[in-house]
Design a protein that fits this description.
single chain; about 180 residues; 5 helices
Length: about 180
């Protein structure tokens, strides 16, 4: 039986140790993000669905990945000032973590164990583009790139995993969120 991710210890953007238990009862979309990435425009969509469904018990959780070519190695103070919430989003932000490799954070260990493969848009060429750029994941279940998403139910169990190029407002993601909110 899958463990709830809600008991996982994390640090918020200010470095305070906490767990995800304070989000129990909500449907969560956990996204490994980057402040400077070709997919960063997804922030706007994440904020749109956060605002649209927060009253129904939906939350986006923003975890910053340090696993991709040092794209996110800025100091936490600078990160906090240059990206949301100051840049326009309302969802919770967490400290930088490793999402791949030997140093993979326990949160991502649990998320990946529950959903080892991601749903991708039809005819997505994202994986092939990453391979052609020398950015292929080392292991089949690794997080491919920034903005990979995990949908977690109210009970803390992972429902689905979505590839980085599947935008938050993709009909498949939206329908999955609606179904989770209906439970």
């Amino acid at each position: 039986m899958q463990d709830s991710i809600l008991t996982t210890v994390v640090k918020d953007i200010d470095g305070e140790v906490t767990t995800l238990e304070k989000f129990a009862g909500n449907v969560l979309l956990i996204v490994n993000v980057a402040s400077k990435c070709g997919l960063t425009p997804q922030y706007e969509q994440l904020e749109n669905i956060q605002k649209a469904w927060v009253d129904r018990g939906f939350m986006v959780l923003d975890s910053r990945a340090t696993s991709f070519w040092n794209k996110n190695r800025a100091a936490m103070k600078r990160l906090k000032l240059t990206v949301p919430p100051h840049g326009g989003v309302t969802f919770p932000m967490f400290s930088k973590i490793e999402v791949n490799g030997e140093g993979r954070h326990p949160l991502y260990q649990k998320l990946i164990a529950a959903a080892p493969t991601a749903v991708a848009p039809e005819e997505s060429g994202f994986y092939a583009r990453m391979v052609s750029k020398g950015r292929a994941p080392l292991y089949p279940d690794d997080i491919l790139w920034n903005f990979e998403k995990f949908l977690v139910g109210r009970d803390g169990k992972v429902i689905q995993r979505f590839s980085p190029d599947m935008t938050p407002e993709d009909p498949i993601v939206m329908e999955s969120i609606k179904l989770a909110l209906a439970k």
